[in-house]
Design a protein that fits this description.
Layout lengths: L19 E5 L2 E4 L4 E4 L2 H4 L8 H13 L10 H12 L7 E5 L2 H16 L3 E5 L8 H6 L3 H4 L9 E4 L4 H7 L4 E6 L2 E2 L5 E2 L2 H14 L2 E5 L23 E4 L10 E5 L1 H6 L12 H16 L2 H10 L1 H5 L7 E7 L2 E6 L4 H9 L2 E2 L1 E2 L4 E4 L7 H17 L1
Parallel strand pairs: 3-15, 5-6, 5-7, 7-10, 10-11
Antiparallel strand pairs: 1-2, 2-3, 4-12, 8-9, 11-12, 13-14, 14-17, 16-17
Helix pairs in contact: 2-10, 3-10, 7-8, 13-14
Bound molecules: pyridoxal-5'-phosphate.
């Protein structure tokens, strides 16, 4: 099968050459019926596994009654979804703008922050990733993603991650927004220290800037809490969610407080944002996350990772980082041969940069598949 006409030919070639046609739980199947355990949760979207039954049912029922409705009309399913989502969050995070992807969720956060504060400056972190539309790309750090499209949006700056002093020094009275991932995913899996997030909160409060946490990848159970910020107790002014929020159906959400919303000037809108199909899928996905106690499961399954990988030699491995079910194994060499070996033995993982093997398994992965996956990873690293 050729991917000659697929849009991912724009610089993101289909490296694995694998054609996957079906999924069930944490497993994906190729055209020959071969089973692969998805250790990459299809880039974080598949936290609930492939085809979560409640989400499938919700999509089928919603599609049979109303697929699309613009956000200008009231929609019971949208109301139910938003009530469920905000019911999981601290009470001040009660206002939600719905869109269709992570980058759109970030784009909205940037626009809300600039408009609500009347300030231009946006601070993001080294190794941060926030998406590929112009605002989100301006906050994204990697030079090769940015350079071909310059000039980007002005007044975006990057500060070292987990360095409270550098952040405090950079936040000033021109700063609209500090935008951070509580766990950096694409940047190689780096976990923010709680005191760093607390320092970010204080710096924002002191200067009147808004604090946004981008939980597009690390949110919704993955870190062992429903939301990654819960690990630090720091509540942001803006929260971005996407990926697994609707169990695989495109969606993005930018959550903020009534106070920030009241200061917003201008308008922002999305034709498809908040459509009934995505909201029905989102409602079922949140029920699956909560009723299945998947955050607790992520915490429990993740706790065994260091022991499972501890004997790997330091000539091969630079560092293991992670929490819950988001892990990065930084190798001294390239990750690609390890990923290829894993694929050969029936496990799909993804990279984060050239030398990090990233694992984002579905939160409902069985203990057998997870420990066998970690054993396969250990084997692949030893043989590389
Ligand atoms: C933290 C973070 N923010 C934003 C995005 C962009 O999301 P999307 O690809 O849905 O636009 C990603 C995608 O990987 C991400 O990891």
């Amino acid at each position: 099968m050729t991917a000659a006409h697929a849009s991912h030919e724009f610089g993101e070639r289909d490296r694995s050459r694998l054609t996957l046609t079906r999924g069930e739980g944490a497993a994906l199947f190729d055209t020959f019926g071969r089973r692969y355990v998805d250790l990459g949760a299809t880039h974080g979207v598949g936290s609930l596994g492939a085809c979560p039954p409640a989400v499938v049912r919700a999509i089928q029922e919603q599609a049979a009654s109303l697929i699309y409705l613009g956000s200008g009309y009231a929609s019971p399913v949208r109301t139910a979804f938003l009530e469920r989502l905000t019911g999981l969050l601290p009470s001040r995070l009660s206002q939600v703008f719905l869109s269709n992807s992570g980058t759109e969720a970030v784009e909205a956060a940037i626009k809300i922050a600039r408009s609500a504060t009347g300030r231009p400056k946006v601070l993001a972190a080294l190794r941060g990733f926030h998406g590929r539309t112009f605002g989100a790309l301006s906050a994204t750090w990697r030079r090769e993603l940015r350079e071909p499209f310059e000039p980007l949006v002005p007044e975006f700056h990057h500060v070292p991650y987990n360095d409270a002093a550098a952040l405090e020094a950079a936040v000033d009275e021109r700063t609209a927004l500090v935008l951070l991932e509580p766990v950096q995913g694409e940047g190689g899996v780096h976990v923010a220290r709680p005191e760093y997030l607390r320092a970010a909160r204080q710096a924002c409060d002191r200067s009147g800037a808004l604090l946004a946490f981008d939980e597009v990848q690390c949110g919704l159970g993955r870190t062992g809490r429903n939301f990654a910020f819960e690990r630090s107790g720091v509540v942001p002014d803006l929260l971005t969610l996407a990926k697994s929020l609707a169990g695989g159906v495109p969606i993005g959400a930018t959550v903020t407080s009534p106070e920030v919303e009241a200061r917003f000037r201008g308008s922002h809108h999305s034709t498809f944002g908040g459509n009934p199909l995505a909201c029905a899928a989102g409602l079922a996905a949140l029920e699956t996350l909560v009723q299945g106690r998947l955050a607790e499961r992520a915490e429990r399954l993740g706790a065994g990772v260091p022991a499972a990988l501890e004997e790997l030699p330091t000539e091969k491995v630079r560092e293991l980082r992670g929490v819950g079910l988001i892990w990065g194994l930084e190798l001294r060499d390239r990750a690609a041969p390890v990923l290829a070996a894993l694929q050969g033995s029936g496990y799909l993982a993804i990279s984060a940069g050239a030398s990090v093997v990233r694992m984002l398994p579905p939160l409902l992965i069985t203990e057998e598949d997870w420990s066998a996956g970690l054993a396969a990873l250990r084997e692949a690293v030893l043989r590389a």
